[in-house]
Amino acid sequence: MLELNVTAPPAISPPPGKEQQAAGVGILLQISMLVLSFVVGHVLRRHKFYYVPEASASLIIGLLVGVLANISNTETSIRRWFNFHEEFFFLFLLPPIIFQSGFSLAPKPFFSNFGAIVTFAILGTFIASVVTGFLVYLGGLTFLMYQLPLVECLMFGALISATDPVTVLSIFQELGTDVNLYALVFGESVLNDAMAISLYRTMSSVQSHATSGQNFFLLVLSFLETFVGSMSSGVGVGFISALLFKYAGLDIDNLQNLECCLFVLFPYFSYMLAEGLGLSGIVSILFTGIVMKHYTFSNLSESSQRFAAAFFHLISSLAETFVFIYMGFDIAMEEHSWSHLGFIFFSIIFIGVARAVNVSVCANLVNMVRPANRQIPAKHQKALWYSGLRGAMAFALALQSVHDLPEAHGKTIFSATTAIVVVTVILIGGSTGTMLEALEVVGDGQDGALETFESNNGYIAPTYQEGTSSGSKLKMKLKEFHRSTTSFTALDKNYLTPFFTTQNDDEDDSDDSIHNASR
User: Which of 7, 120, 202, 248 lies at a CB distance of 3.0 to 4.6 Å from 188, suitable for a disulfide?
Assistant: First the structure.
């Protein structure tokens, strides 16, 4: 029997000149939107118009340009330059944002609240993910919304629990809020990204390989190993960079170019090292930023310090703005499944409920072991609940779920995440200023708190009063925690700082103030 091998005709590719022209037009549009976003953001900030924050303005610009591109039937070759690629986001846009977060961090408020931050970021994100997943699953069983399998509901709960408070934090800075509240919101948002990614990947492996529930503790252990390993690699890279710049003698005039180049490369080295080892690059580069700011930065020459501070602030601002433009354009260009509006509506309600449970449980746990003068007040808890915006991280994971799940399920999750991102960034982000004023946390003693942190080496000493104490055992635990905090401060001051830096604490503090003033 004769068989005919019929091959499909090769796809006709556009001429090289046409492809290059399309690339030029696509990049030109991206640059134009960046310029427009920065100009609009400057005008809004100058007139103190907080109802449309810069991130919201960038997202709206991306949405509008995307809608116009759809209406005008823009060529496919040009559209290709605007597709939101998860790899591009995770490998190129996210690292400078996370590093700048750690590099610009005021370490004393952060580490003084580190226990609370870890509680909200790890336990809180786990609670929010599970509560959201089970509520969505129960909503499907009761026919309130589109029904998904339990594992896929938990995947949705994991990806939607990644908070992205870029909008909220910028308004916090403009209005001036309590330093402890700022540290909690900032620290939770950075660390919970790693937790959300780990939970999503864990649920994805369960969904694809039908992992049994007997491996739950192994999954928890694997996450802890990933977190500790990522933190260790980031701290290790930071310490290595501090020793290199201390002993290499690069702080002379004719080697400042080399000094700056090496300083810029270390953060990416930390991120890619962790990713290459199967760890979390986000956690690694965050702690690299913290360590490099505290130890390495003081080993640079003055001109290199000015360059490093300006450079990382510049690229992080570009990356943040581009992420929201990129996201807005892709939201308008992607195909969405709007047939399940009930899923979107109830998902928004369920994540609000899950966020409330998360904040309430974690705040009560933290307040149980804190003295009365350091407890998280109710108005700060409300601000924490309100500041749980969803942004680029949730969007990127939702876009990945389209490939990880059956087509109808992935499209439904992606469309719901898109709607949640738009609602939280534009509506909630725009009303943040009003919320802060209503809760009376605007100008809530930030300067005084900073002075207290400085004068007490980053720790506010607890006052043990008979009326507020819950027992002698709790008193002893608090005293032990106080001793451990002050002992770490003494260790850093007496051993780590002299070993890894060339300057003393006084000069370090002055450098920090100069660096913060330059920003």
Answer: 120
- pLDDT > 90: percent of the chain: 15
Do residues 209 and 465 touch, judged by C-beta distance below 8 A?
A: no
Distance set, CA 119 to CA 61, 114, 191 (Å):
36, 8, 10
Residue 89 to residue 350: CA distance in whole angstroms = 27
What is d(CA 517, CA 519) in angstroms, rounded to the nearest whole number?
5
Q: Rounded to an integer, what distance in angstroms lies between the CA atom of residue 475 and that of residue 16?
A: 74
Which one-letter DSSP state was computed for residue 279? S
Q: Check pLDDT > 60 for residue 75.
A: no
Rg, the chain, Cα only: 24
* Number of CB atoms found within 10 A of residue 92's CB: 13
CA distance 141 to 143: 5
Can you give the length of the chain in residues?
Answer: 519
- Three-state DSSP state, 163: strand
* Nearest one of 459, 494, 500 to 235, comparing CA atoms: 500
Residue bearing tokens 């870890």: 118
Dist CA 107 CA 287 (whole Å):
11
Range of lowest pLDDT (72-81, 300-309, 448-457): 448-457
- The 10s digit of each residue's pLDDT in 242-286 is 999 888 877 676 778 888 899 999 999 999 999 898 888 888 998
Exposed e or buried b for every residue in 188-213, given b needs 16+ CB within 10 A? Answer: bbbbbbbbbbbbbbbbbebbeeebee
Tell me, rounded to whole angstroms, the distance of Cα 197 from its chain centroid: 11
